[in-house]
Amino acid sequence: MSQKVQIADRTLCREGGSFSFKEKVEIARQLERLRVDAIELPEIVNPRADILLIRTMGSFVKNAALSVAVGSNAESLQNALAALSSAARPRIRMEVSTSPVGMEYLAHRKPQKMLEWISECISTAKKAVADVEFCALDATRSEPDFLKSAILAAVDAGATGVTICDNAAEILPDEFAEFVAPIKETAGVPVGVLCSNRTGLASAEALMALRRGAEIVKTDVDGSAVPLDSFAEVLRACGNRYGLDARVNITELQRTVKQIRRINRNAQEVSSLPEENEELILGEKDSLQDVIAAVTRLGYDLSEEDQKKVYEEFCRTAAKKQVGARELDAIVASTALQVPQTYQLVNYVVNSGNIITTSAQITLLKDGKQLSGISMGDGPVASAFNAIEQIVGHHYELDDFQIQSVTEGREALGSALVRLRSNGRLYAGNGISTDIIGAAIRAYLSALNKMIYEEADA
After folding, report:
1. For residue range 297-346, what is the model confidence (pLDDT) as tens digits?
2. Where are the domains of the chain?
3. For 58-83, how does the pLDDT look when each residue is reduced to its tens digit (9 = 90+)?
4. What architecture is domain 344-457?
5. Alpha carbon 63 to chain centroid distance?
6. Rounded CA separation 96/135 (Å)
């Protein structure tokens, strides 16, 4: 009989992420569809926005456990419990460092005080939810006796699972497996592993740990943990040999990972679509139902509002050319899953040449009123961005700007990525158009609207 491997995905825990509210919700929706066992969320920082986000996820995440991190203070625990009040499978995940350096400089607790906090936190959480996990951060650099004491304190207080974290990635897979084996005997509850992929060995570490008694693996998409897609492929290739199996929907895996990467905005190039969609061709005579049916084939599940947005952008593109799978995928990525549009593009005019100073005139719509800005700059893109800032009345730091071709040919779609920085946070926006200047403007407005939306909720 094969061992069921549980997969807990940490994509939404990534540090420095700039996902919007709707993007986080969509990633959770994709992970639920993929049938991961748990969707892990970071410690609540902004109670108003984060609690609303988690409650929204709780309305549709029914099969996976919703796991919220708790750190070194009682407030984070109370916030997590409030956020999970409506979840079908709530889980509190206590994450504390058990290494000497981590306890002193991150948690600011002495070993004995840390043990007391572990017991207090887990026993309090256990009164409200049945599923409480203890995560020993930096476990591989912890003192063995203290790590054992911390695990026993957690289990005695009611922890239903223990996770051993190799944050340093300084040991080899077989050494990590040997490290995990006695912990399984000590804990007496399911043991999970969180392995850093800094050296590219995270999947091997996790697989070796599973063979020595671990049952849960923490994964993510394009982050620092075990890569979700490659680990699932390892299980598919080697699972029968080692008696390992997972309930992840392998047939949906690549499509789901691709969609998460699209939302993430971090992919350096647009992924190719599955071969079965390459023959997809739509034209301007196709109806809303035809377009949404094609969108569903690509793996998207859109709200009625997003369906209308996608169809409107499809009509604009189809008026110039036929729309294939790649174009439709880019249209969905740039028009759906977006925050409310405080500023909408009405029109733009850019004058550029080698004997004149480049200038741009842009008209935006805000609250039903048209606002115009005219500015010059070093090139058409800079001029357009300056004109937008003139309208908004504020200059934002441009952290990154990229543009690339989504499709080929004279009428190819261009995809632009803009990252703006405000108050120490990054906001990413994406735009597409057959005109690269138009794509850049739409990307800037996408990032700007995210910034306005997120800061209004802060």
Report:
1. 876 777 788 888 889 889 988 888 888 887 787 787 667 766 778 999 99
2. 3-264, 275-327, 344-457
3. 999 999 999 999 987 889 999 999 99
4. 2-Layer Sandwich (3.30)
5. 19
6. 7
